[in-house]
Automatic annotation (TrEMBL):
Ketoreductase domain location: 4-183
Record-listed E.C. numbers: 1.1.1.36
Lineage: Bacteria, Pseudomonadati, Pseudomonadota, Gammaproteobacteria, Lysobacterales
Pfam hit, one: adh_short
Single Gene Ontology BP annotation: monocarboxylic acid metabolic process
Gene3D superfamilies (UniProt xref): NAD(P)-binding Rossmann-like Domain (3.40.50.720)
Enzyme class: oxidoreductase
Similarity comment: Belongs to the short-chain dehydrogenases/reductases (SDR) family.
Coiled coil: none
Protein name: Acetoacetyl-CoA reductase
GO molecular function: acetoacetyl-CoA reductase activity
Keywords linked to the UniProt accession: Oxidoreductase
Keyword Oxidoreductase: yes
């Protein structure tokens, strides 16, 4: 297997941790960003205790200059980014008639503008080297919508348009661009949902449980593999059957 340099944004979160662990376990050299150094270093020590090395670089994906500096830091500390996982994300849930401009802009910025901010400084190098793997972590709710998530669903749906356009532009250069759309996964993001709402969500999932972060990481690892070279512009739904079809 070729060892690649992988940048996973939001790698210290629930799904991000599993993606970092999986890619490092495959022999890739993995980096992620942090905003709070102390918290991130604690996370890094916990990963090291599991035998997993992940390089930390500062970076806010919602800020164009900070995201570019983050990519340059990965390049100088680990090497040119060959695998990019746009995973960092936030929710600010509320019904649209109550939504503030800040709730709208923060969610669009962190989930969707971040795809521009992080991918833009990475793409030219991938094109020159004629190899790359880019995966956006979208969401089931970008496909089917969700009560109280007009901002999040808009951002996550936007990631699909971004993905299929980028896939077309770069297909001849050995670069694949795909999305993974998780259903409800047991991370802090979902555990922050009130318990009674969560119970209703689980009751709606045909497999009868929340997803595990490792189940999302497994799909990401598949899409970034050398063998997945002919999969581009695709979306992989991983949701326990919560949303089927188109
Ligand atoms: P977590 O809240 O556990 O982790 C989110 C990560 O993103 C954290 O590392 C956080 O860092 C980072 N982050 C947030 N904002 C920024 C920013 N501006 N700049 C840099 N990093 C940032 O979320 P999950 O692991 O659950 O979610 C990961 C992705 O999966 C998200 O895109 C989410 O929308 C998507 N998803 C999650 C689902 C779920 O059920 N959990 C379902 C469908 C999609 P910090 O610690 O600094 O805040």
């Amino acid at each position: 297997m070729t060892s690649r340099v992988a940048l996973v944004t939001g790698g210290t979160g629930g799904i991000g941790t599993a993606i970092c662990a999986r890619l490092a376990g495959m022999g890739h050299r993995v980096a992620t960003n942090y905003r709070n150094r102390t918290k991130a270093e604690e996370w890094q020590r916990a990963m090291q205790a599991r035998g997993i090395e992940v390089t930390l670089v500062p970076g806010d994906v919602g800020d164009t200059a900070s995201a570019e500096a983050m990519v340059r830091a990965v390049e100088s500390e680990v090497g040119p980014v060959e695998i990019l996982i746009n995973n960092a994300g936030i929710t600010r849930d509320t019904t649209f008639h109550r939504m503030t401009p800040a709730q709208w802009h923060d969610v669009i910025n962190t989930n969707l503008n971040a795809c521009f901010n992080v991918t833009r400084p990475v793409i030219e190098g991938m094109r020159e080297r004629k190899w790359g793997r880019i995966v956006q972590i979208s969401s089931i709710n970008g496909l089917k919508g969700q009560y109280g998530q007009a901002n999040y669903a808009a951002a996550k749906a936007g990631m699909h348009g971004f993905t299929i356009s980028l896939a077309r532009e770069n297909a001849k250069l050995g670069i694949t661009v795909n999305t993974v759309s998780p259903g409800y996964v047991a991370t802090d993001m979902v555990m922050a949902v009130p318990e009674e709402v969560r119970a209703k969500i689980v009751a709606d999932i045909p497999t009868g449980r929340l997803g595990k972060p490792e189940e999302i990481a497994y799909a990401v690892a598949f899409l970034v593999s050398e063998e997945a070279a002919w999969i581009t512009g695709s979306n992989l739904d991983i949701n326990g059957g919560h949303h089927m079809g188109w």
